[in-house]
Design brief:
The chain has 154 residues and is an alpha/beta fold. The chain contains 4 helices and 8 strands, in the order αβββββααβαββ. The chain has a single domain, classed as Nucleotidyltransferase, domain 5.
Length: 154
């Protein structure tokens, strides 16, 4: 039979000299891979210019509605008719009303007070479409309505 030796082997010390490089590499990887998801805009719009604009604070309770000409995946205008987009899908006024009624009922009372609808409409959209949309939103108790605009360069 063989002789078993009982040598105590020590675990080597972790080399911490390369740790900052490793952490930086992982951080850089996640910065490249992750991104904040926004809705895929399926309508073409050019925001009107404004003079007195304020920046919105809480963006967690904001619902975006886009109004403009429908475009395809490449960004080419499909039709000259104005379309309304809500959450990655083109929607009609009854569909928007149904969506906001469901949203309103699923929120707590604190969230209901802070619910904001941001309308990003093309500057050439007729006001009748926006008024109809506002009326539908009023019926759903979505009363905080903001309009997106660019700063007037004049």
């Amino acid at each position: 039979m063989g002789i078993y030796r009982h040598n105590n082997h020590e675990i080597p010390v972790l080399n911490t000299a390369s740790l900052p490089d490793l952490i930086f590499t992982i951080l850089f990887f996640f910065m490249l891979v992750t991104h904040i998801r926004n809705a895929n805009v399926k309508v073409k719009y050019q925001e009107p210019a404004g003079k007195e604009l304020t920046k919105m604070e809480k963006k967690s309770t904001i619902n975006y509605i886009y109004i403009g000409k429908a475009v395809d995946d490449k960004g080419h205008v499909i039709s000259n008719e104005n379309k309304i987009q809500l959450n990655d899908e083109l929607a009609s006024l009854p569909e928007i009303k149904k969506y906001f009624l469901q949203e309103y009922q699923s929120m707590s009372s604190a969230q209901r007070k802070n619910m904001i609808v941001n309308i990003k409409a093309d500057k050439d959209v007729d006001m009748g479409t926006i008024i109809d949309l506002k009326q539908s939103l009023r019926e759903c108790n979505a009363l905080n309505i903001f309009y997106a605009a660019d700063i007037d360069k004049k």
